[in-house]
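Help!! Second protein's tokens look totally different from the first
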Amino acid sequence: MANEAVIGSFYGEKAVWLRSGKYEAALLPEIGANLVAFRDVEAGYKFLREPEEAEMDSFREAPAVYGIPVLFPPNRYRDGKFEAAGISYNLPVNEKATGNHLHGFFYKAAWDIVDQGANDQESYVVVRYVVDENDSVYSVLPHRFQIEIRYALSANGLAQTSTVTNNGDKQLPCLLGYHTAINAPFAPESSKADVTAHVTTGVRWELDERMLPTGGTIPMTAAEEAMKSPQGGSPYAESLDNHYSAAPVDGRNFAEVIDHRIGVKLVYDAGVNYKQWMIWNNGASAGFFCPEPQINLVDAPNVDLPDETKGFVLLQPGQSWNETSRLYTEKLA
């Protein structure tokens, strides 16, 4: 298949379809710039949890549990309030059960397509969301800034380059993560018993009854230790909604899923600039789990830890943060 980037449809929603060799991917610019599909069409693998046609209404209402949703700021913030660099923020409380703000403003928003195309090496699309005084987000995040994501599809898999740029004159809290929903298994004839997962986690952060970090750590369970080990463990051994530091191995910060029935490994090389992980598996009840890379600790501005430890980044005026992540497969020997 030739490399191409074309505007099309995904169950009635505007989509940018990327195609390269055996791979295809679909991005929905008007629903949070969600990269909702990444597939090996030759083998019939669907690597991400995709909404089926009958689930599209549910997806539009809760897109954060499909594909690769953009979280800014990621996860929870106590009462929606924090202070950074002398500015007080008051985000809406949108999770009534905990009284927190959850997941930010961009995963449902319409993004602009600023470039798309294909060449001999890849197909690609670039999307951008710009916040300034004319945007509704400015009322709660009073900064001029932009988030830009470039997705590229090639023989090497799917690459995601994320860039946050401070266009204003004040320091910007750079709080970014992705709620990446990976099918495990990704092969249609495999079962949950066929897969193991390995994530380069460090310590497990203690969370209080509101799912917010206390600043302390707690021991991992045996199931968590198994997933931390190079041998991996089942991502469904127990219910997971847990928070961890990232602990890169040989300079790489990654999650991987092995389908032992077919002898194929899916690698999610998130990048070392993501300093934290969340892992969520929807109560271990379904065939997907979410290894979620984040720059920062949940509720980072409110947690009494060093900025380096909690991954809290303040961008100076004119400064950018960026990282490239990649999803790809390997055949086991």
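Here's the second one for comparison:
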Amino acid sequence: MSNKEKKHLIPALERGLTILMELNRHHREMSFAEIVKRVGYPQSTSYRAVQTLEHMGFLRHHPVTGLYSLGVNVLKLGFEYVASLDVVQVGHPVIESLCEQTGCSSHIAVRDGRDAVYVARVGATNATIRRVSVGTRIPLHCTSLGRLLLTDLSKEEFESLYPDDQLLNKELGAPIRRDVLWNLVQEDRQRGYVIADSYYHFGISSIAYPLYNHDGVVEGVVSIMVPVHEFAEDERTKLQTLVQEAARTISDMLGHDQALAKRDD
């Protein structure tokens, strides 16, 4: 930033935001002396900034320990922001990186009624798998990816979504009874992910992990697809870890980590 541009900055605002940024997950509580040391401002200047932030609810002063931590208004701003973010908006750069790391086509899907809808896709350069385009709809019970999208439903919600005991069996191997599907979904929920071989497309393996939003609700699923003959046993753990990390990154960007931190407090 040039000196000309710097002259338009507001020093007091800059000091206040610097203090807030110092209070992060690695330094969740600090004394006033620690704040002064870390930000490098004069004690009197830091005191006025801290008092202002506390008055506005952006800092909390513990009455017993005397330590400062982020106030509720910081969380409020954060939750309002992440609540406005779209899973495609935050997730697409992540699955681009996932595709580069794995060499596999990567996807994000969400639930729409009883269908899984692909809302983002990054195809591997040398992919031999039949293209799954954005907008493709697949019945939830016909795919392992789709089952993950059902994992946060209660039994009542699940039965409301599937009122009939019999399911339309559009794919070989898909469950045809509601109770069977429910049991599979519970196994997926307990496991926390799905690795499937030739479940929806013969010869195609997939790894899928759920995406959680700021309310802790399953917002979508991230997955990769790879031909079974390229899915060697010694590669599975590595690929699974990469998909899991991508799912965690997207969930954190949607505010899931903030929700967990708020519950911990």
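Reply: Different proteins will give different token patterns, so don't panic. DSSP finds eleven helices and eight strands in the chain.
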